[in-house]
Amino acid sequence: MLAACQDVRLEQCIAEYASDDRAGVISACAVAGARLARHRAELARLEELARFEGELWSRGLTLVAGVDEVGRGALAGPVTAAACILPPDAILIGLNDSKKLTPTARTELDSAIRRVAVAVGVAHVDAAVIDAIGIGAATVRAMREAVASLDVVPEHVVVDGLPVDIGHPTTAVVRGDGRVRVVAAASVVAKVARDALMTELDRAHPGYGFSMSKGYGSSEHLSAIRRLGVSAVHRKSFSPCSQESLF
């Protein structure tokens, strides 16, 4: 019973068996108590993660979007941005900076985020555009397009990193993907979306191992560039893709 009890009812379950002096029950209550402590700690962490949004909500700004990007340093594929607006009461257990999560945890959280979100938007800016306008401008374009693709217009946007012009009132938070709930959610959505696209590009451009490297400069990826040359989705303005003669 205690092992099967959901976290939201765990305290009540423990209370029901607290007076049972059987050794097995006492042990189960101890395990359940530790689980309850972990659950409370996680809720406290999530409350702190939502604190920045709470400050904006207190000013009457209810549609707060978080924006984050992924793929800025890759040698191939797009730079991808996601924008996400969450309701105040959304509780997403395990939500964190996508880089701190396993692929399985990211996929599960991506589904959970999409179920509860007020709005989610994703934008990819491909390698050809990156080569044409530069990675900085391409990253801002991806962020702006992700926000523009939301079903609702945000009243305020929180971006990860340094200030950028998103076209809306904006606050930049350094390491925001680990400090602000909606930015953390955007980081998860962006990572899952880009990883899925890189798997598709692996099928379209076999031999480079995009599904494994996600377009970053792994040793296997660099070896494939030496062997095969660059593909249509490589960033020709990025070294070493711009210096094939060095291989």
Summarize this, please?
With 247 residues, the protein is of the alpha/beta class.
Walkthrough of the structure:
With 247 residues, this protein is of the alpha/beta class. It folds into 3 domains: 7-49; 52-196, Nucleotidyltransferase, domain 5; 200-246, no CATH class. Helices cover 47% and strands 12% of the residues. It has 9 helices and 5 strands; from the N terminus they run H-H-H-E-E-H-E-H-H-E-E-H-H-H. It has helices spanning 10-17, 23-49, 51-57, 103-116, 127-133, 135-148, 181-204, 210-213, 219-228; strands spanning 64-70, 79-85, 119-125, 156-160, 170-173. The chain has a 5-stranded mixed beta sheet with strand order 3-2-1-4-5. Strand 1 and strand 2 (79-85) form a beta hairpin. Helix 1 runs antiparallel to helix 2 (23-49), helix 4 (103-116) packs across helix 7 (181-204) and helix 5 (127-133) packs across helix 6 (135-148). The longest helix is centred in the first third of the chain and has 27 residues, at 23-49. The chain starts with 9 loop residues before the first helix and ends in a 19-residue tail after the last helix. 37% of the residues are buried. Residues 1-5 have low confidence and may be disordered.
